[in-house]
Specification:
The protein has 5 helices and 5 strands. By secondary structure, it is of the alpha+beta class. This is Replication-associated protein ORF2/G2P domain-containing protein.
Amino acid sequence: IDTIEIDPGPAELGVFLSRSIALEHQDHARRLTRAATDEFGAFLSRPQWDWFTTHTFKAEYVSPKEGDRHYFAWLNSLCLAARVRGHGRPFWFRGTEFQDRGTLHFHSLIGGVGDIRRLLFKDFWELHGFARVEKYDPERGAASYVGKYLTKTAADIRFSHNLKQELSGRVEA
């Protein structure tokens, strides 16, 4: 049996190299995205968070503006409860995404709530849908989970003005 060696021509070699370079770029982009998410998660791990929250709407469609209105009304109630209890204003970070069914979905890290009853605020949200308000456990990776919003295309991140103070206070300590 004779063997025939096939020498790829310039066109085939160019296609092979283009695919190889494209795959290398995709792999590099994935590594950078993973690194950015990890670093952002580490950054978000600096403050002393109290709660990790999930807010889902029961309506099939809620506009981002309407979603913000409901979230900030909920958050303002939390700030009022903190003030009544003699705490400072809570600090927070929120990531927004759309669920598979097309409705908004929020995840938040919230700190500075002291002894406020988290289940009360779970119940407050349930006028709009489903909520989980869990005690923050740094071992469960919520900061990194919420940090993924940095690299999501259709995601939105928001944070309180006083988060900067909390971050700089912890860095100096």
